[in-house]
């Protein structure tokens, strides 16, 4: 009995030990992380330090654009001011032209009218003052009527800018712009160049010479 027991023990000791493998092997160490690298070449024109220079370039471009806008604003303002000045000049010039057209609209009519005024003036000067007496009442009445008509006519013409002037009344100095010298004669008692005689009276239309006065001028030298 003892021998059988020893024999079984020796047989069990001689058998190889079978290990039971687990279904899943335990992870003994951490799996290393995988990194991916690109084989594409870096973009052209970009180098180290360009990231810092990019904001500087953008600021320079913005500054340049701002300067251009400032110049455009200045140019537009200058054009605006010039346009306003041109418009105001046009207004003033148009206003003057309209006023001149109104002032000298009667110029042609006035030229024809002065002949009638001259004839009326000649009629008054042809009557000698010695004949204007009570012995000739009709002549006196006619003369007074002509004189009154002449005064009313000259006053009416003056309201419309037409004025008659006589240089010899105030002994005016000869002015070629408003006078026309018909003859010259020496007169020791008068100053040289004075209009002493008026052959035909002159007319002004709104300050402009419509017809120059024909005068005799003193010339002592």
TrEMBL record:
Which Gene3D superfamilies does the record cross-reference, listed alphabetically? Answer: 3.90.20.20, Head domain of nucleotide exchange factor GrpE (2.30.22.10)
Where does this polypeptide localize? Mitochondrion matrix
GO MF terms held by the record:
adenyl-nucleotide exchange factor activity; protein homodimerization activity; protein-folding chaperone binding; unfolded protein binding
Q: What keywords is this UniProt entry annotated with? A: Chaperone, Mitochondrion
GO CC annotations?
PAM complex, Tim23 associated import motor
Enumerate composition-biased segments (Basic and acidic residues): 44-56
Name the SUPFAM superfamilies for this protein.
Answer: Coiled-coil domain of nucleotide exchange factor GrpE, Head domain of nucleotide exchange factor GrpE
Q: Which GO terms describe its biological process?
A: protein import into mitochondrial matrix; protein refolding
Segments carrying the region annotation (Disordered) are 35-56
Q: Where are the transmembrane segments?
A: none
Instruction: Tell me if Methyltransferase is a UniProt keyword of this record.
Output: no
- Which family would the database say this protein is a member of? Belongs to the GrpE family.
What this chain does, per the record? Essential component of the PAM complex, a complex required for the translocation of transit peptide-containing proteins from the inner membrane into the mitochondrial matrix in an ATP-dependent manner.
User: What protein does this entry describe?
Assistant: GrpE protein homolog
Source organism (scientific name):
Paraphaeosphaeria sporulosa
Q: What is the lineage of its organism?
A: Eukaryota, Fungi, Dikarya, Ascomycota, Pezizomycotina
